[in-house]
Amino acid sequence: MEDNDQNEEEMKHFRDVVAAFCHYDQWIDTLEISFLKLPESHQKLIGDTMKAKLSTLRQRAKDNNQFIRNLVRGTDLFQNQSMAAQFGGKGNREIPLERDMDKVKSTLRQFSRWDHSGEPERVQCHTPILQEIERLYGSRSDKSSVRILVPGSGLGRLAFDIVSKGYSCEGNEFSYFMLIASNFILNTSQEEGQYELFPFIHQASNVINDDDQTRPIRIPDVVPSKILTTGGNFSMSAGEFVETYQHQKGEWDCVVTCFFIDTAKNIIEYIQVIYDILRVGGTWINLGPLLYHYADMGEITIELSYQQLRDVILSFPFQLRGETLMNANYTINRRSMMNTTFNVVHFSCDKIN
């Protein structure tokens, strides 16, 4: 009975995620309503330019909505074909929760990692990790025998980049928003720049020029299917990291965490699982901040400083190597008047026994 209840709850959540995607284009109505509520004298001051801008935003929202239609139709991966095919379905709520709609917009922005414009962030965040992997395993004649796990893999770009170097890699993701989107980009792309979308139209603050807000990205910048046929084995798993991997003792050569470990309610549990699933001599490579995701949500959570975290890591025991602080961005809009730069910690550590 408990398993049935859990499965039903998971299906309910999946339907809510699909419903959020299906309601995407309704956000533009709020902007128009806000403009029409202005005093008439104020409307006249910006009337022509605002009407033109709203018209462009509505068209770009329709373009994004068409992209989302294609994305949602690909959810047969999750064995929900009949529901996913009914684009416009309401899921379990007539109107999705605002937090779910925010996740749809965030997911669209994540696609920038698959655009040529995302290269600077990939160089910041992925290149140090890829260089460390090459340092560790690059001399092996059979790179595909090296098993690398990337929990919190998002849209799968880092995991894909690892496989493109010849290694076997599994991405793990908990969010259905990310799983649906990664399935789409990894499995349906046939040519470079095949899909055009407009991920910045939702950002109304800190805009210099209207064109900055409505500019497109074209994805993917590389076709996964053309690379994955020559690289190592590539897979994606769905599920919460601890629940999915805690019993895979000593099965992984390398675990890569990129902007991931601060998603834990109990970061020590993450470290425990990483330690357990690595073989002796295996390596954990990390790059990211400590922006604890549950810190302001009223949940029971542990927020360690890096000094505390370092002590915990050494107690397992791991042997730390190459600790470095560096600047990194996360799916930023480079034309915005405001962007956040993280001072992230990058380290490698070996499981010594």
Automatic annotation (TrEMBL):
Sample GO molecular function, one term: carnosine N-methyltransferase activity
Record's keyword terms, sorted: Methyltransferase, S-adenosyl-L-methionine, Transferase
Membrane-crossing segments per the record: none
Parts forming coiled coils: none
UniProt EC number: 2.1.1.22
Gene3D superfamilies, per database record: Vaccinia Virus protein VP39
Pfam families: CARME (PF07942)
UniProt-listed InterPro entries: CARME, SAM-dependent_MTases_sf
GO terms, biological process: methylation
Tagged with keyword Cell membrane: no
Keyword Methyltransferase on entry: yes
Record-linked PANTHER family: CARNOSINE N-METHYLTRANSFERASE (PTHR12303:SF6)
Family from the record: Belongs to the carnosine N-methyltransferase family.
Name of the protein in its database record: carnosine N-methyltransferase
